From TrEMBL:
Organism: Winogradskyella maritima
SUPFAM superfamilies assigned to the protein according to its UniProt record, in alphabetical order: Pentapeptide repeat-like
Protein name (database record): Pentapeptide repeat-containing protein
Annotated PANTHER family: ANTIBIOTIC RESISTANCE PROTEIN MCBG, PENTAPEPTIDE REPEAT-CONTAINING PROTEIN
Pfam families associated with the record: Pentapeptide_4
Amino acid sequence: MNLPFISDQTFTQKDYTSTRLQKAEYDNCTFVNCNFEQGDISNASFLECEFIDCNMSNANVTHCTFNAVTFNDCKMLGVDVSRCNTMLMDFSCDNCVLDYANFSGLNLKGFVFSNCQMKHSDFTDAILQYVKFQDCILSNAIFEHTDLQHSDFTSAKDFLINPAKNSMKGAKFSKHTLDGLLRHFQLDIKP
């Protein structure tokens, strides 16, 4: 199925909660202050697009393609990223709220999450090699059978990772965040 091609456009303050975003290939488009909350953007394709200050909470992203996409200052509560098209998946998030997002089973090697709140997000069975969690809040995030090799948690906050249940060779942590690794062992750590 060939999708319509939409290129080099800016969409500002559009409400896609009841009216669906056109199913298309979006190339080099910008979405500013748009509301996709509980909307349906399934089967759409975004290449080199930017989402700024958008609400994508609980949006249906099934078979959606995000390639070279940036999300800035977006609210993305409960988004099931694991349902997206994984072919050529590449995106970054800066200053986004990704609470309850589902990344389980995905290959996110080299992705960057910066200044994001990711409480209760699920990374079960995901490949997170070389992922950077710069100044991210990871309270109650789930890391089970996750490949965290060479990932960077040096400035991450409130994570709890069981080293016995995850691959962690070369992962980076600061001495201030080690309690997130050792809490599973019920050690008494003094400052």
